[in-house]
Amino acid sequence: MRIRTVLAALAASGGAAAAIVTAVPAATAQPVAAALSSRGAVIDHVAFEHLPGGLGQSSNFRYRFNRVDFTARVWESRSSDGWRVDLDIDVMRGSRLSSGAALHDWFIGYEQRASHPHYLPVRVHGHPGWLCPDQLFWLMRPGLAVSVQIDGTRWPTWSVVRTAKAAHLRR
To answer: How many Å apart are CA 166 and CA 161, to the nearest integer?
Structure first.
């Protein structure tokens, strides 16, 4: 499905999913160094040439869950009651991410989102992906997947799409 069609469908449904933070147990989360440029970010050899404006401070993590290796960067802003996640980008690597269907089934179970958003199928650079109002995840190639999730109360869905469309593998 074309991303513009999906954006129109999401807008028509009036759904705006609440932002979610993927909890990482402190014992398994390890800070990692990652390249950062003025225009975007590089996370585990995936370049994001566009990031939404107004992001807060970033932290980097590396962890493993259910035979999938994660390299993540999370941007957070201070709020009246602590911190809130602005943007969470996860680069995932593992043999279980062998196809679009395998990624979808595994990732939906991994996320365990309380709001149970409805994901619509999309294509990102010709590869299978799924979009909801605040998140887009897709298979870059067998064994490599990416998730981009944004605070949907502060940025619109097109910010997620623009960030994902500006992503490419960099060696």
So the answer is: 9
| The token pair that represents 142 in the structure block | 């067998």
Would you call 49 helix, strand, or coil by DSSP? coil
Please give the share of the chain, as a percent, with pLDDT higher than 70: 77
Taking each helix axis as running N to C, give the angle between helix 157-165 and helix 3-13, from 0 to 180 degrees, rounded to the nearest 10. Answer: 160
61-104 pLDDT, tens per residue? 999 999 999 999 999 999 888 999 999 999 999 999 999 999 99
Produce one character per residue of 121-146: b if its CB has 16 or more CB atoms within 10 Å, e if not: ebebeebbbbbbbbbbbbbbeeebbb
Asked if residue 97 lies in contact with residue 127, where contact means CB atoms within 8 angstroms, the answer is: no
- C-alpha–C-alpha distance, residues 155 and 53, integer Å: 9
Q: Which tokens in the block code for residue 84? A: 């809130």
CB 72 within 8 Å of CB 60 = yes
Taking the domains of the chain in order of start, what are their residue ranges? 3-17+29-169
Taking only the tens place, the pLDDT of each residue in 144-162 is 999 999 999 999 999 999 9
Instruction: Determine contact, residues 34/51, Cβ cutoff 8 Å.
Output: no
